[in-house]
């Protein structure tokens, strides 16, 4: 099967059929809806337009799809997403997801923080609301882009161009601080020396909003997501290097970078692990223009990923992830978001087993005591049939695949028809 199947206007199409776009265009403004045929009877979808017509999952229907379908979504509680849905992540309708963050997108000049009154009763007492950190926003975009999923057909297809495309598509339906997130998101395009000037011009146009802050705003901010390529000392602080942005570093104050090094020491050091396939570090940086065309980092978050961009909680997960890939398995990597610990979630979720998704747990002797305790508690809660790999022992045999189905997942290159969504 070369792609997911949809039922549109009485005809069943595969995602690879050129006629699909024509059919979607004819029903875009009508009440008719396509159906994803990953299960018997299909699941209702809807059509959005992002340059082309895109088939998307209806809110609240993720668990109705077959686990091997790209529109499948497990229960939010399987990852840190469950703590944020409904408060920090609000799905107003099929095309509008609002997120609320604990960081600003601008700095206001000339205004002091409001002070409490000297006495008397307060006008109101508000309950605290959950807000997303920069790490949670990075994980949310990764989740919406489907980059925490793996299907065998994705092998070798996750280039910088693919990462950029799907992160930007994921951001296009999300609002933050009153505007769509894609307007404030920059993901570097694949760098080629021959196209350096054109690439630079497109980057400057994208980040031009940082140079026009407005009357009440000292700095506007944007998020840059890219592969961290090292840090260098300079007379102006640290120069942070992003792969595919070799001509434009990001600057960060020395003390702030030293705090980042302490916080992400294990993540940064993991790039030098004695492994054949070295992991990488993805960085999300909140930046502003301190001077014209000089970009300063206000805050940052880092996530360890495999060489295929699959997110990792730590090096202890990498042998399992690579074995799943070697055996051609379909799986999902639950993300931490803002959960205090990632150990309470499965380290991977197999999507191709009989009876639905199957959780896999990894217990490493190198986890700190709190993380190890949380993981042991999660293993105990999973019951006698739980799959557990203790890394000081051989990797256990994986649960068997389900019998072959008539429908299967699309390859990375065919996913232009649809972007997986939260909710």
How would you describe the overall organization of this protein?
- By secondary structure, this protein is α+β, with helices and mostly antiparallel strands.
- The protein folds into three domains: 1-73, no CATH class; 74-107 and 130-312, no CATH class; 315-390, Trna Endonuclease, Chain: A, domain 1, CATH 3.40.1350.
- The chain is 20% helix and 26% strand.
- It is built from eight helices and 23 strands.
- The chain has helices at 19-27, 134-145, 160-172, 196-206, 254-263, 265-269, 318-326, 369-382; strands at residues 5-8, 11-14, 35-36, 43-50, 52-57, 89-93, 96-99, 106-108, 149-150, 174-176, 179-180, 185-186, 217-220, 222-234, 237-242, 250-252, 280-291, 294-305, 311-312, 331-332, 348-350, 358-363, 387-390.
- The strands form five sheets. Strands 12, 14, 15, 16, 17, 18 and 19 form a seven-stranded mixed β-sheet that branches.
- β3 (35-36) and β4 form a beta hairpin.
- α2 (134-145) packs across α3 (160-172).
- The chain is globular.
- Residues 110-119 and 406-423 have low confidence and may be disordered.
């Amino acid at each position: 099967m070369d792609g997911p199947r949809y039922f549109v206007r009485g005809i069943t199409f595969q995602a690879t059929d050129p006629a699909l776009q024509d059919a979607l265009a004819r029903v875009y403004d009508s009440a008719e809806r396509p159906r994803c045929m990953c299960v018997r009877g299909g699941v209702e979808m809807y059509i959005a337009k992002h340059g082309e017509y895109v088939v998307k999952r209806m809110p609240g229907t993720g668990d109705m799809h077959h686990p091997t379908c790209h529109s499948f979504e497990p229960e939010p509680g399987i990852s840190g997403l469950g703590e944020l849905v409904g408060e920090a992540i609000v799905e107003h309708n099929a095309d509008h997801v609002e997120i609320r963050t604990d960081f600003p997108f601008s700095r206001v000049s000339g205004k002091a923080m409001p002070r409490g009154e000297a006495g008397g009763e307060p006008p109101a007492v508000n309950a605290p609301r959950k807000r997303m950190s920069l790490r949670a926003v990075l994980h949310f975009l990764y989740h919406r882009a489907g980059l925490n999923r793996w299907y065998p057909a994705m092998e070798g297809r996750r280039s910088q161009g693919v990462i950029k495309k799907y992160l930007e598509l994921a951001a296009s339906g999300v609002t933050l601080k009153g505007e769509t997130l894609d307007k404030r998101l920059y993901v570097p395009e694949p760098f080629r020396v021959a196209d350096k000037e054109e690439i630079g011009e497109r980057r400057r146009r994208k980040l031009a909003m940082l140079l026009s802050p407005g009357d009440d705003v000292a700095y506007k901010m944007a998020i840059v997501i890219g592969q961290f390529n090292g840090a260098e000392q300079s007379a102006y602080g640290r120069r942070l290097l992003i792969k595919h942005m070799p001509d434009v570093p990001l600057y960060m104050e020395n003390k702030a970078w030293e705090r980042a090094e302490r916080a992400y020491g294990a993540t940064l050091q993991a790039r030098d692990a004695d492994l054949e396939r070295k992991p990488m570090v993805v960085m999300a940086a909140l930046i502003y223009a301190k001077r014209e065309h000089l970009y300063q980092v206000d805050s940052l978050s880092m996530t360890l990923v495999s060489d295929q961009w699959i997110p990792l909680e730590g090096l202890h997960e990498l042998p399992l992830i690579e074995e799943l890939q070697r055996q051609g398995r379909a799986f999902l990597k639950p993300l931490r978001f803002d959960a205090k610990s990632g150990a309470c979630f499965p380290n991977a979720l197999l999507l191709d087993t009989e009876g639905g998704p199957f959780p896999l747990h990894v217990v490493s002797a190198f986890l700190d005591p709190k993380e190890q305790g949380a993981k042991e508690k999660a293993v105990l809660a999973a019951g006698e049939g739980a799959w557990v790999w203790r890394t000081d022992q051989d990797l256990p045999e994986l649960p068997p695949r389900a019998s072959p189905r008539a429908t299967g997942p699309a390859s990375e290159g065919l996913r232009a028809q649809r972007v997986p969504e939260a909710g």
